[in-house]
Amino acid sequence: MVLVRNGPFRALARAARRSLHRRFARGIPIVYDARYQRGVFGVPMDPLRGEKVLGALEEAGLLKRDLLSEPRPASLQNLLRVHTPEYLHAVQEPEALIRILGVDVLPAEAEATLDLQRLMAGGTIQATRLAMRTGGVAVHLGGGFHHAMPDAGLGFCIFNDVAVAIRRLRGRGFAEPVLVVDLDLHDGNGTRRIFADDPTVHTFSIHNDHWGETEAVASTSIALGGDVEDALFLGTLRGALPPVFEAVKPGLVVYLAGTDAAADDPLGNWRLSRAAILERDCFVTSLSRGDARACPMVVVLAGGYGRHAWLYSARYLLWLASGRPIEPVGEEELALRRFRRLGGDLRDAETIDDGLAFSLTEEDLVGLLPGPAPSSRFLGYFSRHGVELLLERAGVLPQLRARGFRTLRVELDGRGGPGHTLRILSEDRPGEQLVELRAERSRGAVPGMEVIAVEWLLLQNPREPFSERRPRLPGQQHPGLGLLRDFMGWLVVVCEAHGLDGVFFVAAHYHVAMQSRRLVRPLLPADEARLRAITTALEGVPLPEGTSAVEEGRLVDAETGQPATWRPIATVLPVSERLVALVTGAEYEEAVEREAPRFAYRFRPSGRGTGGGRLRRAMAHRRDRTS
To answer: Is residue 60 pLDDT above 70, yes or no?
Structure first.
């Protein structure tokens, strides 16, 4: 990866890396609170974003627990350094919060919403305190509410945590210049307005559109419009930011490292690659931390929406902690980590009190502990109460609330066969089913082993429409929820606790097989060989297009030219050593190699006259060479 291309800045980047390595060989101070996972109802931010970033650091061996601190809520005295008394009084009312957040806020939720953003304002204060104490970088896994103004909130932002932290420093005698570098997709209008008449605080923002007036005595405000790609953004950043550093000579840098400019952000309108976002982060850090001008630096997360936002923040922190690019561990590993931690909590204490209205006891979550289990429970282990508390603590239910489902109901149903069904429904509107999982313990699915056999797993968002970005896939009535890894993680930890061999399910469609590819392996070597051949033929083809190709007969046998009809694949997520060996060992790979010559496919892009769905239906009776 190239951090900076201009000659003078290469030396700067090298100096910054040396400085970072010396200063942070022992780790980076990080501010985070588990209460951030509660999120705000309806605000489309992943409530587990910070938790996932911490997990990625821990999995890489780069998280220093002694440098991880929890914040205190910002005091009213500190909030009043920025916000007017009238505004602080007004935001107690749900109507004011509705205008700021753009979602309905019930009276009972108003106080919790204020408490969360007040806690995050305290998190930015704490990160500033740590950066000033160490003279280095401190990271707050939250904050960046840059739209909040002295007398108004906007765009999910109630309290301007960055401004509060800076004004607090000023109140304690810190007089050096401050540079706020805001590279969130959206304009840092609130911060700019707060410091519009303060020549000692320079606000720098590159964004898509201006949000209001841009005039200020010390400000750089650059609007690039929509559909911005890497070259334009990085060129603008390289040209505009170094002269600001030279002119300001900051004694403190506050960096809003928003990730909503990423190409895959569901609310953004830029198309920055992951490489460009990391290059951006490294460049800002290089300017702040070069040997010649190193000054304290505070990093806050700012904007970033959807389930992939955490990845961009994790890449940056992994680079900060190691001095080199590291790709974060997959979400499946992080899901496993969360559920394993819950199991560890139960082993350490008979009762878990997590601040909810009721507590989680060993009796409720017997499924995460070894030992006999009542047969009337889900999978023979879990009570309904236990399932609900486990999903709450593992972050599944908070993620659903963040998608706008306020009131959730968890149901267990043992009727209709030997298995059990778990359902999660939203009670906000009639008939809103979000999750349905039907599974049983089975000794027949995999010969000689006992597994959890998943008969059916439905994960859907009935309020989200299909779109060009998220088209309808076979078997879908609504777009998915992105929680497959969370549910698989739960089942894996149950297997580990009770000596089960793994999880078994049948991939009925191509897209199901591909979405679970990092988690599971086909049970039969012939199916693995077939899936590898399909993957090769569809390399570089987006999943929706590849799925359409398979369904419409545009994936054809390379020898005969006939459509390669999809056949369901029995897959396993192996947990025990013997099942791992069965589907990953040398014998399995040798069998896959023997089967491989039977499968070769070609992809026909749409518009090549294949006859589409009619051809697929006409050839449905034919069997490809996998028979």
So the answer is: yes
